Automatic annotation (TrEMBL):
It comes from the Bacteria. InterPro entries: HyI-like, Sugar_Epim/Isomerase, Xyl_isomerase-like_sf, Xyl_isomerase-like_TIM-brl. One of its GO terms (molecular function) is isomerase activity. Keywords: Isomerase, Pyruvate. Residues 22-248 form the Xylose isomerase-like TIM barrel domain. SUPFAM superfamilies: Xylose isomerase-like. Belongs to the hyi family. Pfam families: AP_endonuc_2 (PF01261). Transmembrane segments: none annotated. This is Hydroxypyruvate isomerase. The active site is at residues 144, 242.
Length: 259
């Protein structure tokens, strides 16, 4: 598997360019971040090239939702802009969600007036068009389900089963699941079984312990067993550490690379 460090949540006392160097020093060859609009992408590309780093992925949606049919063209326009940026950075993945997310991951609109069936249909129809763009740029979209208990109240996709149903319905090699272990521990548990049951559509994993979204070993998730299962399954995708360290960031990063 390819281990990636999320630079939005670690080394936050340093500038973004410094975080890239610290990730490399800790042993990471892949890094990731959230949105691209507030970043100097030319500088990021130069930093990666000079330090043998690769961008694993970043967020490909912003202010628009898969759920709203009237936003479909706006969603796809922004997605294509994100794909162009991903191609420039030589990233392999773009992360997408069901709802638009604002500051601190707040769901901007929950579309409570729409039935679950309508939300599925609208999402499916937008994703059918989205994978055509993904294929054009040869970048895989990974659809992330989020917890609605603590962090993202009102988000439509909040289970592995629902995300997988959409991905399997679209049937494209350019659409997979981002399986976030922290989110799914809160929502459904049964982590080892779900990793195995949905392994065919998982191509990106986010890692943090629960509760707290901190480093493995600080919460209730048995990450030794998680990594054992991933190795048994010969997982070849991204394992991204998107967590807020409680211990010193340099030590945490160095420990993560050895998991």
């Amino acid at each position: 598997m390819k281990k990636s460090l999320c630079l939005e949540t670690i080394f936050t006392d340093y500038s973004l360019p410094e975080r890239f160097l610290l990730a490399k020093k800790a042993g990471f060859d892949y890094v990731e971040f959230w949105g691209w609009q507030n970043k100097d992408l030319s500088q990021i590309k130069e930093t990666c090239q000079n330090n043998s780093l690769k961008i694993a992925g970043f967020s490909g949606d912003q202010d628009y939702s898969l759920l709203a049919a009237e936003e479909r063209n706006l969603y796809l326009d922004f997605l294509e802009k994100s794909l162009i940026k991903a191609k420039f950075l030589e990233a392999d993945y773009l992360i997408i969600h069901s709802n638009a997310l604002g500051e601190d991951g707040k769901v901007l609109i929950d579309y409570i007036e729409l039935s679950k069936s309508v939300k599925y249909i609208n999402s499916y129809q937008t994703l059918i068009e989205a994978v055509k763009l993904a294929e054009k740029y040869e970048i895989t979209l990974v659809l992330e389900a989020l917890n609605t208990i603590q962090d993202h109240q009102g988000n439509f996709l909040n289970s592995t089963a629902d995300a997988a149903a959409l991905v399997r319905a679209v049937k494209s090699p350019y659409l997979k699941i981002l399986y976030d272990i922290y989110h799914m521990q809160l929502m459904e548990g049964n982590l080892l079984n779900n990793i195995e049951n949905y392994f065919d559509v998982i191509d990106y994993i986010h890692i943090a312990d629960s509760p707290g979204r901190n480093e493995p070993g600080t919460g209730e998730i048995n990450y030794q067993q998680i990594f054992k299962k991933l190795r048994q399954l010969n997982y070849q995708g991204i394992a991204g550490f998107e967590l807020f360290p409680l211990a010193a960031a340099e030590k945490v990063a160095a420990d993560l690379i050895d998991l």
